[in-house]
Write a structure and sequence with these properties.
With 310 residues, the chain is α/β, with parallel strands linked by helices. The protein folds into two domains: 164 residues, Thiamin diphosphate (ThDP)-binding fold, Pyr/PP domains (Rossmann fold), CATH 3.40.50; 119 residues, Rossmann fold (3-Layer(aba) Sandwich). Helix content is 38%, strand content 17%. The chain is built from 13 helices and twelve strands. A seven-stranded mixed beta sheet has the order 2-1-3-4-6-5-10, sandwiched between helices. A five-stranded mixed beta sheet has the order 7-9-8-11-12, sandwiched between helices. Helix 9 packs across helix 13. The radius of gyration is 19 Å and the shape is globular. The chain starts with a helix and ends with a helix.
């Protein structure tokens, strides 16, 4: 099953067992831009799979209201870049309501904000902004990197009870892999993809695939590869245990290196363990439209390999 279909199946199963789960966003009725809602409106009706006008602030504001009155909305923002038009509703309303009203109201919504480079889509459609949302108290931030995780983590996000920023990667929709529909996972739990003894490599989202390429080429060192999966809360225990064993840490991500979430991981490990840490990520430049300029923003396997060897 591919990455998009895996999420669609998780959403279908959640809607089938809980009538409070609703979907709203642009083009969801026709299945979404990537087919991630395919067939849902015909099965559940237009009152539960709701096509909206092109107004991100209106979509997100309506979703916050729905959540506060007992529904469990799944909100489609198409890409994270467009969600910036709804930043007040996310950061000042959804994230803070439970705290500001002493727990009297909760906002159990899932906001799907796809991140990352999207070939040929240029600077306004290719950003990785997970660190922005990790910085905001009250938000959960999830970054699935495989079809299985896009199924299991979306199910966990819908069940969470708090606002979840759910960040699928724009170039992973067609990625195929085995999906076990009944396999469950927990938010905040990383996955060790490969055990190793010489260096710990931590990553998430599409960079997992790039990291796997780099690890294959690292013939003379033993790499422990960790897919973080959830940016907030992040799995400190798994990362610290691995880094304590290997005595070296590399964090790799597609987002801009400056103030990226890799800095939080690197600082935590350095403070707790005092071992060498290194970050490898994108330069602080807008993503170019032309392929050579776009490639300048891409994190490739060679860059990760050099960090592992260094």
């Amino acid at each position: 099953m591919n990455y998009g279909a895996a999420a669609c199946l998780a959403l279908e199963r959640a809607m089938a067992v809980d009538s409070r789960v609703v979907v709203l966003g642009e083009d969801v009725g026709r299945g979404g831009v990537f087919g991630q809602y395919r067939g849902l409106q015909s099965k559940f009706g237009a009152a539960r799979v709701i096509d909206t006008p092109i107004s991100e602030s209106t979509i997100m504001g309506a979703a916050v209201g729905m959540a506060l009155t007992g529904l469990k909305p799944v909100v489609e923002m198409r890409v994270v870049d467009f969600a910036l038009c709804a930043i007040d509703e996310i950061v000042n309303q959804a994230a803070k309501a439970r705290y500001m009203f002493g727990g009297q109201g909760r906002v159990p919504l899932v906001a799907r904000l796809p991140i990352g480079l999207w070939a040929g889509s240029a600077a306004q459609h290719s950003q990785s902004l997970e660190a922005w949302f990790a910085h905001v108290p009250g938000l959960v931030v999830v970054t699935p990197g495989t079809p299985q995780d896009n199924h299991s983590l979306l199910a966990a996000a819908i069940a969470c009870g708090d606002p979840v920023i759910y960040m699928e990667h724009k170039e992973l929709w067609g990625l195929e892999g085995e999906v076990l529909p009944d396999e469950k996972t927990s938010l905040g739990k990383a996955k060790v993809l490969q055990a190793g003894t010489d260096v710990t490599l931590v990553t998430w989202s599409r960079t997992v695939q790039t990291a796997l390429e780099a690890v294959k080429q690292a013939n003379h060192i033993s790499v422990e590869l960790i897919d973080l999966r959830t940016i907030w809360p992040w799995d400190r225990d798994t990362v610290l245990a691995s880094a304590a064993k290997t005595k070296r840490l590399v964090v790799a991500h597609e987002a801009v290196r400056v103030a990226g979430f890799g800095a939080e991981i690197a600082a935590t490990v350095a403070e707790e363990l005092g071992i060498p840490v290194r970050r490898v990520a994108a330069a602080r430049i807008p993503v170019g439209y032309s392929p050579p300029l776009e490639d300048a923003s891409r994190l490739d396997a060679e860059a990760i390999l050099q960090a592992l060897l260094g």
